[in-house]
Write a structure and sequence with these properties.
Layout (H helix, E strand, L loop, with lengths): L12 E5 L4 H16 L3 H14 L3 E3 L2 E2 L2 E4 L6 E11 L9 E10 L4 H15 L1 H9 L3 H10 L2 H10 L1
Parallel strand pairs: 1-5, 3-6, 4-6
Antiparallel strand pairs: 2-3, 5-6
Helix pairs in contact: 1-2
Length: 161
Amino acid sequence: MNLISHILPLQNVLLDLEADSKKRVFERAGLIFENQNSLSRSAIIDSLTQREKLGSTGLGQGIAIPHGRIKGLKEALGAFFRLASPIQFDAPDGRAVNLIFVMLVPEQANESHLRLLSELAQMFSDRAFRDDLLAADSADTMHSLFVEWDPHAANERRSTL
């Protein structure tokens, strides 16, 4: 089982989310984490916005991983959105983003936070994984893709390309 599967519950996976800006994505993330985890929506929006001011969390290839530190949070939490229409995220390749993984980590997180980000980067560098997310027809299917993702299988696919 991969690390991401531990922080991404099915109810935090949204298919074809309507959002026309980073701000709207952050607001929706705030609402989800407020409803699911009793966290402060404004603290989440502020944390994600402040992190984004340090540099875009857009990776390229239509992917972004906005993340923020939350005071009082005990363990990392995740949410995944596939947007109905891509939005600008200041990604290094200039492409608009439609696959967004939002991650919240404890205020003092360090190594575990970096391991989660590393695993997300590996997942999203797997072209077959990205294509499967884009083709998924339900939140259940998308969630299963995250849960079943195996870094070793991804490396094997990459080495045969």
